[in-house]
Amino acid sequence: MSIRRRIDPAAGHEALVAWVQARRTGAAPAPRTTLATAVRFTLEELAARNEGNSVEVRIPPFGVTHCIAGPRHTRGTPPNVVEADPEAWLEVAVGETDFAAALAAGRMSASGTRADLTAVTPLFDAAELFPS
After folding, report:
1. Within the chain, where are the H helices?
2. For residues 132 and 129, what is the distance between their CA atoms, to the nearest angstrom?
3. What angle do CA 129, 81, 21 make, to 5 degrees?
4. Would you give the DSSP letter of residue 72?
5. Which DSSP symbol is given to 29?
6. In this predicted structure, which of 40-54, 61-75, 89-103 has the lowest mean pLDDT?
7. By C-alpha distance, which of 106, 119, 16 is closest to 67?
8. Mean pLDDT throughout 74-88?
9. Burial of 65 (0-12, 13-18, 19+ CB in 10 A)
10. What are the angstrom distances between the C-alpha of 98 and each of 9, 23, 104, 116?
11. Closest C-alpha to 35, from 49, 20, 24
12. Taking the CA of residue 95 as centre, how many other CA atoms within 13 Å lie in the half-sphere pointing to its CB?
């Protein structure tokens, strides 16, 4: 079953590229709406590439998704949760920081035996973000 996208992939990609370019050029941070779109797009992409319901990924205040195949969670607090601030999540999503480094630095938290996103991140590399 494929996920239902709320963010147009072209608009999401554009927002993600704008966020990366702002960081690389040292320009002013991307506007909040751009940040929100980039986060929501990457969460949808994570879920589309890794369908399932065993891990909940939370990026407050912008979004949450379920991903990774395995036992489905149905009640109460999910047993496998990853949570991060929007900047840390996008850094991991585009490969500026790896998942383990973000955890070690305290910029992300992960609980549960399946809450390791090392194998599924980064979601995008430079070639995908900036095709020739």
Report:
1. 9-25, 32-49, 86-93, 99-104, 126-129
2. 10
3. 20
4. P
5. P
6. 61-75
7. 119
8. 87
9. buried
10. 24, 17, 10, 11
11. 20
12. 10
**What is d(CA 82, CA 89) in angstroms, rounded to the nearest whole number?**
10
Return the residue matching tokens 């036992």: 71
| pLDDT for 73 | 65
Q: Which tokens hold the place of 15?
A: 């927002």
Q: What pTM value is reported for the model?
A: 0.93
- Token digits of residue 46: 């994570």
13, two tokens: 């990609």
Angstrom distance (rounded) from CA 73 to CA 14 = 33
**Residue at token pair 């995008």:** 124
